[in-house]
Amino acid sequence: MTTIPPSTAGDCSLFSTVSPCARARRHGHEGGVLWFTGLSGSGKSTLAIGLEQALFAEGFKVFVLDGDNLRHGLNGDLGFSDRDRQENIRRVTEVAAAFVDTGMVVITAFISPFRADRDRASQILGAKFHEIFVDANLEVCEARDPKGLYKKARAGIIPDFTGISSPYERPESPALSLDTGCMSIDVCVADLRDYAMRAFLRA
Q1: Domain range holding 179?
Q2: In-domain check, residue 171
Q3: 112 is catalytic
Q4: Catalytic pick from 40, 42, 45, 112?
Q5: Total domains present in the chain
Q6: What predicted TM-score, i.e. pTM, was given to this entire model?
Q7: What is the dihedral of CA 22, 189, 145, 159, to 10 degrees?
Q8: pLDDT tens over the chain, length 203 residues
């Protein structure tokens, strides 16, 4: 087993001798997580993709973890009960933490409806966690309904649907809040880019 020198042990992942500072110097930015939370249809995935493109163009090492994609793979065994939602977010947090250890900026796009689950993610990721509230009210999201999910939920076809038959707990003090009911995608992405540059770019 490789022994980590005492002078760097506090700066390294348990299984790596490359310090976060060394990775940041190489990448030109710090690693961290922009945790998008909001109702289905609020625009999380759209903004995540737009921000990924904007940051990639700036030279960032950046990647999106999206709820729909992970539910086809890593979280394919999970349903939508409260317990499964909690496990979904626990797994996402651990994956995001692994990416952050490599110095990447991770954008997560998950409803993550329960405040306690987001708080646990914050505890695990520490200062690397940035909660972004993609704020659109239920009426706006239901009017959009891009996947027809609200219609199915109203018809009782989808049980435990957030905002209809399962609660959504709004963030109390997000790092950034974007009202996508009245703000354009371009304006939101620009605000997100500016926030990310302040949060992660090395001087």
Answers
A1: 31-200
A2: yes
A3: yes
A4: 112
A5: 1
A6: 0.86
A7: 30
A8: 333 333 333 344 456 677 778 887 888 899 999 999 999 999 999 999 999 999 999 999 999 998 777 767 777 667 777 788 888 888 889 999 999 999 999 999 999 999 999 999 999 999 999 999 999 999 999 999 989 999 999 999 998 899 999 999 999 999 999 999 999 999 999 999 999 999 998 75
